[in-house]
Amino acid sequence: IDWFHEWPAEALSAVANQFLSKDKDLAFEEKTCNDVVKIMVQAQQSVFELTERFYAEMKRMFYVTPTSYLELINSFTTTLKSRREIVQKAKWRYDTGLDKINDAKEQVSALQIELNELEPVLEKAAQETGEMREKCEFEQAGALEKKVLVEDEEAKAGVQKAAAAEIKADCEKDLAAALPAYEAALEALSKLSKGDIGEVRGMKTPPAGVVLTAQAMCIMFEVKPTKVAAPDGKGKVDDYWESAKKELLVDTNLINRMVFYDKDNIPEAVINKVKVLYDDPEFEPDKIKKGSLAAMGICKWVRAMVVYDKVAKEVGPKKLMLAKAESDVAQAEAIVAAKQAELKEVMDMVESLEKQLFEANEKAKELQKNQKDCAAKLARAEKLIDGLGGEQASWTTKSKRLGLDYVNLTGDILIASGIIAYLGVFTGSYRNDACAGWLQKLVDLKIPASKEFNLQTCIGDLVKIRQWVINGLPNDALSVDNAIILDNSRRWPLMIDPQNQANKWVKKSEKEIKILRLTQPYVRDLENAIQFGTPCLLENIEEQLDSILDPVLQKATFKQGTLTMVKLGDSVIEWSKDFKFYITTKLPNPHFPPEICVAVGILNFMATLDGLQDQMLGIAVAAEEPETEAKRIALVVESAKAKAQLKELEDKILALLSSSTGNILDDEELIETLSSSKVMGTKIEEQVKQQEVTAVQIAEVRQIYKYHALRSAALYFIVGDMCIVDPMYQFSLDWFIIMFNKSIDMAEAKDSKDERFTELFRSFISLLFLMVCRGLFEKDKLLYAFMLALKCQEIEKELKLNEVMALLTGVPGSAKEEKPPNSDWLTAPSWARINALQGLGDVFDGFIGEFTGNIVGWQAVFDATNPEEAEWPNNFKLKCTPLQQALLLFALRADSTVKAIMNIVGQKLGNFFLEPPPLDLPTCYLDSSPTIPLIYILAAGSDPLGDISKLAETYDMLANINPISLGQGQGPKAVAGIQEGGQSGKWVLLQNCHLAPSFMNQLESLVEKLSEGPELHEMFRLWLTACPSPNFPISILQMGIKMT
Predict the structure, then answer these.
(1) Which H/E stretch holds residue 493?
(2) Which of 89, 287, 630, 883 is the most buried (most CB within 10 A)?
(3) Residue 817 to residues 687, 844, 849: CA-CA distances in angstroms?
(4) Contact between 889 and 867 (Cβ < 8 Å)
C-alpha cells in the first residue's frame, strides 16, 4: 500500500464504503451512505488541490495522504455517534422537562376541583366526629364512675384477702413446727422393710421397749389388747404384744398404713391413751433402739403423731377462721368479678366507641391530609410552573433546534470531520474555501446540513471556549477553531506557533504540564509523564521528530493483562488515560515530511489580524483608560463564570426532572431544589443581563480605540514576515507588544481623541521602524519602509490590490497593440508594460491612446534625468497616486522605480522613514540586560569588535571583554565563559556563531537559562556575532537586540 501518494477515486470510495457499511451504529440508508462517501472522496481530492494552491500562493508545504483520508473516516464515525448521543440526550432532557411542566399544568385544574370537592366532605366528617366524640366522652364518664365502684369493691376484697392470708400464714407457721418431727418419722419409716417388721414379729421374748412400741401401735390403729392372766395371778391384764403380732405385724401393708395415716383426724381417745406412753421415759427412740431398730422407727412415728395432733388441735380454730375468711374472700371476689364483668361491658362499649372515634378521626385526618396534599401539590405545581414556566419557551426553542441539529448532524459532522482531518494547517481563507465547496456538494446531494456551517456551534462547547480565552487563547475565529480541532481530534496536536501564543495558552490551561525539548534529554521525563498521566509539551521542534516518539504519536498501545501498555524505546511502560501530548514549533513556515503530517494534527496558530487587534485593543484601552480595561477583564471572567453557572444550573434542573419517577408533584424535595435552583438561576440571569449592559458600555468605549488597534496590529504582519527576506530578521509578538506599550508612553499628550490617536500611531510606527531598522541590512530598510506604507494604505482602504500585485510582479503582460510611430526609444518590454497598465483600469483606462497621442511628451519624460520630477503630458502625474506613478515609471523608466517607491513611503509616512538614523550602539546597550543578548548580524567583511571595544571604554569594561571565536571544539570554552562572565560581570563576545551550527542548540539552552538560573552580575552582557544563517536559534533572535 502506498500511503503517501494519491489514491484513485474508486479506491477512496471503496475504503469509505467498507468502513461506513460495516458500522451498524451509524444506521445509514444506502443512498445516504453513498452520498457521504462521495463527499469524503471530494474532500480528499479537493484538499490535494488546496495544498497545491497553498504552496503556489503561500509557499507552504503540506502533505495529504490516504492516512489523512482514514482519519477523516474515523473522525466522522466517532464524532457522529458521540454527537448523536449528546444531541439525543440533550433533546430528551428538554422534552422531559417540558413534559413535566405540561403535566403540572394539566394537574392544576384537576387539583383545584379535587380541593373544592374535599371541603364539604371534610365539614361533614368533622361534624360526625364531633358528635361521636361527645357520646364517647359521656360513656367514658359513666365507665369511670363504675370503675371507681369496682375499684372500691376490689379494695375491700383485698383487705379480706389480706386477713385470710395472715391467718393462713399463722396456721402454716404452727404446722411448720410439727412437720420436721413428722418428716423425720416418715424418713425412719422409709428405711424399714418387711423384713424388719418380720424380725420384730418373730421375737419370742421381745424387750420391754418393743412391747411398749407394740402397745403404742395398737392404740394408734385402735387394736384391742388380748386379756391374759396377770403375772401375780390376780386377775387379767392387757397384752398388746400378741394383738400387735396377730393384727398389725402380720400386715404386709403396715408401713404404708403408717405413712398415709390420717394425722389430721386422730380420735381424742387414741391421743389420750397414747399420750401416757408419749410421756413414759422408756418410750424414747434411743432406748427403743436398743431393743430393735424397727421398733425405734415405729416409736418415732408414734411420737410424731402425738406432736402433730397437739399442733393440729391448736391450729384447728385458726383453720376454721381461715375457712370463713376464704369464704368471705370468695364472696367478695365474686362480687368484684360481677362488677368487673359489668365494667368490661361498659369498657368494651367505650372501646368500641373509641375505635369508631379513632377511625372517624383517622378518616378526618386522611381527608385533611388529602386536602393538605392536594393544596401542597397545587402550590408545588404553581411553584414549578412559576419557576420553570419561563423556561418553557426557551426549552421548546432549544428542543426544536436540537431536533433540527440532529437531522443536520450527518452533513455538519462531515464538514467538521473534514476540518479536523485536513484543514488545521491552513489559514482562514483556505479553510473557508474548502468548507464552501463541501457545503455546496452537500446541497447538491441533498444531505441535510446547516445552511451556514460554524465549527464552534457544531462541536464546540461555549463554556470551554470562554475558559480557553481566559487562559490566553487568542480571541479570533481561527484560533478558537484550532482549539476545537485540538479538543476533538484523535491525533496529538503539532502547533505552528511562531508567536508563542499556543505555547502560552497550553501552559496556562494545563497547570502541571511537563516541558520537553528534543535538544535536551527528555525520554525519562516522557516515560514518567505517560505512566502518571502528566500532560507534556514538546516545544520548539524543527522539521523532524525522533523515531522513539512514533509509538506515542500513533498511540500504539496494547493490553498486558488488565493494563494498557506502550513500548517506548526498549522500555514497556503503563499508558495512563490522562496523558496528553502537545507539540509546538516556532518555525513560521515549517516543511514537515509526510510521516509527520500523517502522525499528528498540524494546527496553524500563527497570529491573525483579528486576534492581534483584540490584544492591541486591550493594551491601548488599559493604557489610556485603565479602569475600563480592568472592568472588562473582570467582566470577562465574571461573565464566563456566571454563564457556566447558568449552564450547570440548567443541567442540574434538567437532570432532576429527567431522573424523577412517578408524579413530580409528590416530590416536595425535588420541587424545592428546582425552585431554589431557579431562584439562584434568576439571580445569575439578572447578573448576566447587568454584565451585558456593562459589556455594551465597555464595548462603546473600546470601539473608539478599535481602528487604532487595527492599524497597529496590522503592522506586526510586516515585521513578522521580514524573516522571509532574511532568516535573521526574527521579531517575536512579545517584543512587538513591548514596543507598542513603549510607544504609548513615548507619545505626546493631545487635547482631542483624534489627535491622540494620530500621535499614538505616529509614535508606534516610528519606534517600530527605528527598532527594526537597527537589525536590518541597509539594502532591506527601504523594502521594510515600503511594506509599512503599503500596509497603512491597505488598512486605510487606499490600496488597490491589482496595482500592488502589478508592481510587485513587474507589471507582467504582453503588448496587444502595435507600438506607435516615432517610438524607437521605447523598448518592447516597456511597451508591453504600458499595455498591461491599461488593464488595471482607473486612471489607466484608455492609457494607450493617451500615451500614443502624446508620444513626444512621454519621450521627454523618458529622456529626463529625473523622470519622477519632470512634467508629464496632460498633467498626468497629478492624476496618479504615488503607487500609480511608480507603476508608470517602472514601465517607462525602470531605473527610477526606487525613487518612486521612496516617494510612496515619503508621501504616506514622511521622510523620517526614508532616512533611518545610523546604529546607536550605546542606546542598544541601554536597551539590553544581563538576560537579553546583543546580536550583531554581520555583512561580508564587517567586524564589530572595534565598536564594542569603544563602547567598553565608556563603561570601563575594556579589560573585562572575553572574546571567543566559535568554531570546532570551542563549545566548552564558550559555555565556561558565559558561566564565569555571568558571575563576575564580564562581557562575553561569541564571534562567528554561524560557524558552529552544532553548538547552536546548546547556546539556545544557555541563553534561556540566563533568566531561570542564579542571579547574574548587573554588568554581564552576552554579545553574539553571526552572518545570516538558518541554523541560528530563532528564540535568541526574537528575544535579543539585533544590530547590523
Answers:
(1) strand 493-496
(2) 883
(3) 72, 15, 10
(4) yes
- What's the CA gap between 205 and 752, in Å, rounded? 167
Counting runs of H as helices and runs of E as strands, what totals does the chain give? Answer: 37, 15
- Which H helix or E strand runs over 379? helix 293-422
pTM, rounded to two decimals: 0.70
Quote the cell numbers at residue 217. Answer: 401401735
CA distances from residue 345 to 139, 342, 473 in whole angstroms, order as listed? 11, 5, 91
Q: How far apart are CA 125 and CA 127, in angstroms?
A: 5
Degrees to nearest 5, angle at CA 171 with 165 and 172: 85
Answer whether residue 1043 shows pLDDT above 50.
yes
Burial class (CB in 10 A: 0-12, 13-18, 19+), 183: exposed
Residue among 69, 34, 316, 302 nearest 189 (CA): 302
Q: How far apart are CA 329 and CA 656, in angstroms?
A: 75
- pLDDT on residue 174: 67
Which class for 355: exposed (0-12), middle (13-18), buried (19 or more C-beta within 10 A)? exposed
Tell me how far apart the alpha carbons of residues 322 and 340 are, in angstroms, rounded to a whole number. 26
Cα separation, 278 vs 297, whole angstroms: 14
**Residues 239, 226: contact at Cβ < 8 Å?**
yes
Q: What is the 3-state secondary structure (H, E, C) of 415-439?
A: HHHHHHHHHHHCCHHHHHHHHHHHH
Q: How many CB atoms lie within 10 A of CB 117?
A: 12
Tell me the torsion sign for CA atoms 340, 341, 342, 343.
Answer: positive
Residue that the C-alpha cell 429527567 belongs to: 658
Contact of 514 with 534, CB cutoff 8 Å: yes
- CA dist., res. 622 & res. 460, Å (int): 30
In terms of phi and psi (left: phi > 0; alpha: psi -120 to 50; beta: otherwise), the region of 411 is alpha
* Beta strands, E only, 955-1031: 961-965, 987-991, 1021-1026
Mean pLDDT along residues 265-281: 88
Question: What's the distance, Cα to Cα, between the start and end of the chain in Å?
Answer: 53
Dist. CA 494–CA 537, nearest whole Å: 10
User: What's the sign of the alpha-carbon dihedral 953, 955, 956, 959?
Assistant: negative
Which of 75, 7, 18 has the alpha carbon at shortest distance from 41?
A: 7
Alpha-carbon torsion angle 10, 14, 17, 18, nearest 10 = -170
Tens of pLDDT, residue by residue over 768-802, are 999 999 999 999 999 999 999 999 999 999 989 89
> Any idea which residue has 444550573 for its cell?
649
DSSP at 818:
P
How far apart, in whole angstroms, are the C-alpha atoms of residue 874 and residue 887? 18
* pLDDT over 60 at 178, yes or no: no
Cell numbers found for residue 221? 390403729
Contact indicator for 531, 574 with CB cutoff of 8 Å: yes
Residues 6+ apart with CB under 8 A from 708: 616, 620, 757, 760, 761
Sheet holding 514-516, edge to edge: 514-516, 536-538, 581-585, 493-496, 601-604
Whether the predicted pLDDT of 1 surpasses 60:
no
**CA-to-CA dists, residue 875 to 369, 471, 839, 854, angstroms:** 103, 58, 21, 12
Q: CA 477, CA 480: separation in Å to the nearest integer?
A: 5
Q: What region does 962 belong to: left with phi over 0, alpha with psi -120 to 50, or beta? A: beta
Grid cell at residue 226: 388380748
For residues 448 and 446, give the distance between their C-alpha atoms in angstroms, rounded to a whole number: 6
Q: Which three cell numbers stand for residue 620?
A: 491601548
Q: Where are the beta strands (DSSP E) in 500-654?
A: 514-516, 536-538, 557-560, 563-568, 571-574, 581-585, 601-604
